[in-house]
Structures are given as C-alpha cells and as structure tokens.
Amino acid sequence: MRFRVIARSAVALAALLLSTVVASPAQAASVTAAFTKTADWGSGFEGKYTIKNETGSAISSWKVEFDLPAGTTVSSFWDATLTRSGQHFTFANVGWNGAVAPGATVSFGFIGSPGGAAAAPANCKVNGADCGGYGGGPTDPDLPGRPGTPSATGGSKSITLSWGASSGTVTGYRVYEGSAVKAAVTGTSATITGLGDCETHTYTVKAYNAAGESAGAEATATTAGCSTGPLPEHFLTGYWHNFDNAAVELRLSAVPTDYDLVAVSFGEATNTPGEVVFGVDPGLSASLGGYTDAQFKADVKTLQSRGQKVILSVGGEKGRVQVASAAAAAEFADSVHGLIREYGFDGVDIDLENGLNATYMAQALRDLHARTGPGLIITMAPQTIDMQSTGAEYFKLALSIKDILTVVHTQYYNSGSMLGCDRMAAYSQGTVDFLTALACIQLENGLRPDQVALGLPAGPGAAGGGIVAPAVVNQALTCLATRTDCGRFTPPRAYPGIRGAMTWSINWDASNGWNFSRTVKPHLATLP
Question: In a 3-state reduction of DSSP, which class is residue 386?
Fold first, then answer.
C-alpha cells in the first residue's frame, strides 16, 4: 500500500504519519484469536482457536464468541467452557488456562456438525474486540494463507515438522515455540534439534511475506527416549486377591502370562503410621488347601521367570494406610522396602481410597526409589474423582513424581457420571466416551501417554457399576491412540503412547472365563 503525501509543514507530515499508524490494525497490540479447521469429514468438522496475547501485559482471562451458520451445532469441546444463544457461541477459559503472558498462546477446540465449506465461524470477537482478522473478521489480502495442518514426529533429541503450503505470496515460514522463533525455512518442513529425551513441545508454523505473517497452525510431539522401564510399550495389569470372596481363588503361579504386571492386593496398615505389612491371608490359604508365604515367594519368582512383574498394592477399598507426616513417609519407605527385599516384589502400587497426602507420599516414594534404584515400578490406582482436577491430591502426587512414575491406571468404574476434559457434560460410566473423555484429562494436563492406562472391571461381579465389554476397552484404546473408532467424544489429538489397560481383577477374570485378558491383551499389540 502506497501513500502520496504533500507536506506543507513538518507538523502536518507527522500528523499524517501518525494517522497512518493508528489506522493499521495489523500494527496494534491486541489479543487475537485465530481459527483453524483441523479436520472436516463432511458430516462434521473439528475446529480450533488459538488465542495469542500480543499486548505488553499478561491477561487473566479470555472469551471468544462467534456465529455459526444456521443448523450447525457443537457436539463436544475441550479446554474451555461454552454458552450458546441460538447460533451465537461463546467460549471462555477454564480455571487453569485463563492467564496468558505477553507473547504466549493458549487454545481450545470443538467438534461441530455438519461440515463443509460453509461450516466456518463468523463475526468473531475475543474479549469484546475483533479477533484480529481470523475466524470471521476482515483479512489482509496481502498476507499469506494459513499453512496446512502440520504433522510432527519426535526423534532422538529432535522433532521434525512438515505442513501444507500456504496460499498467496510466501517468502518463507517461521516455526515458533511460544513467542520464540525456533526455525525459519523457505520449504514446508523443519527439524528442531538440541532437545532433551522424552520432551513434549508444541510448535506454531506461520507463513510470512513483506505484508506480515499468516495465522498459525499448531502441532505437538514428544522426542524419543521415554523410558518404558521393565515393562512392554503397551501392557496389561491385573490385581490378584490375597483374600477369598465370591471370585475364583488362585495361587499366584496360576496367573496367566497375558498379564504383564500383577498387583498383589493388598499390603495393610498397622498401628504405626505409614507402616505396611504383608503375608498370605489365612482365609485364602485355607481355601487353597494350605498356601504358605514360602510358596507365595516361590510363585513370585516363577512369574518373574516368565517375564512378568509382580508389585505390592497398598490400600484398597478397606485399607487404612496413612502417610500424613515426614515420620510416616519414612516408615512407609522403610517397611515397603523391607517387603520388596523379603518377597521379591518389583515395585509398589498406591491404591489409597480413603485419603492421600501428596506431599508426604511423594517423599515416601522418592525415598523408596532412592533405596531400590531406577528399576522400581511405581503405579497408582486412583478413583475417577481423584483425577478430575490437577488440584486433587492424587493428581498432584502423579505430577510431582512424574520423573519416577510408571503408570496411573485410574479406576473407571463405581463412580457414576463424570465430566471429561471437554467440560461439556457428564459422561455416563460404562461407555466408550466415559473412558476416552476422562483419560483425556490426564493426557492434556501433564502426564505423558505412556503414564496413562485404563482401569476396568473384569466382568460381572467385579464392580457395582461401570462394567463394560472388553471390546469397549479396545475401542477406547484405539480412539485414544489414533483418534479413530471413537464414540460421540473425539479427543483433541492422538496419543499413540497410551500405555494399556488394568483390570480388577485377575480372580474375577478367571470367574468370567478369562474374557477380559484374552480380548484386551491381543489388542494391545495392534496399537501404534
């Protein structure tokens, strides 16, 4: 754009130049919201907004509102709250993503239907102002178009991105991480090097020319080097009863090899805070015709010789183990370490269903890890309510020991309906949407996919609610790993590293003809 100025005085020239700057919205510092249609399959589409704070000060909240064509609906969404009035949709931040530093970005997404070229937002406002040229606002015809949706692949200390070429005149592309430029290229691919092992990074690709930059397209990937520890990339966990009930009683050696990890339930409390003890239950011993501690220890070695791992689960529904002080944390680490040495356990499972102190349990587990070394398996079995928020004690514990944590296999049963990561509605237990939408909370809030597994009952009798056919467990794993074969809820991205599944319990699986393990275990081998 050219201006011809006839200046009668320096003051007039300065005034004209100032008016030119003020009239250019591209140069005004503001909060913008860029829309990307990340997928469209005709009957529906996935949309994403990226909010960027281009001001010089942090903002504490954001609200994006826009109109969709008549007949277009939003079926699910994530990382925002939604209110609707007719065809006017308003998305606002949730508690944890409202604060945006200068130059930083946050995003939210949604599933709309139907799809097609007409399914695009219009009249977009962010915090009451125009969205900055995206999602229905006026656009600068001289700017390049948004790059095609990038793909990102993690390598050894690196991440490689590739994307579709932008429309219009393109000088090159910049790859951002936050506000920092990590690469500038003229082609449609770039490799970011110098990263660490098992690091997750999100990048935004923008095309640019003399007029400025396009809207950004985002991709996330994790570098190689994530340690899977002594367990397979995808594995099946089962709990073994150290008590007798209506399920089939089994000697530990009778556990089939479909189970990669066996959690012995349970280590029990004493009158000393934090202390854990274990021994073969007398009732179980009698039911099995006399099963001794010595035979149990031999069976632990038998499973380990088959390539299986055996850990001690602490707590359970009726367990009263409490670690609520530094002294109790030391007692827990000391007593569990002694049981590991005595019985040959490969690790410990935290299944405290009657309260947990994240600070002191983290202290105990780090102490135990220091005593046993990096091969220690640490798992957790929280209830669904325990993983609804990063402020919950179980979630705080998982994040605080992320560097030594093996896996969290949340119990997706006995909970009733619960909110998923889209915070749209309560999903009913016993459905594929319940499993995927709730697992998404952990996957989008700090845990790596290899640290997340799905815990389900083995069949009738094993739980009071949330029992699903093993085929539904397989469907949920496929949905999370590939974003295909989903139900009504589709996760915002694929998590190919999703770790696997857990069942309560091996004994109930035996009571139901081994249907769970014989269905789910082979499916794990099909995951990417």
Answer: helix
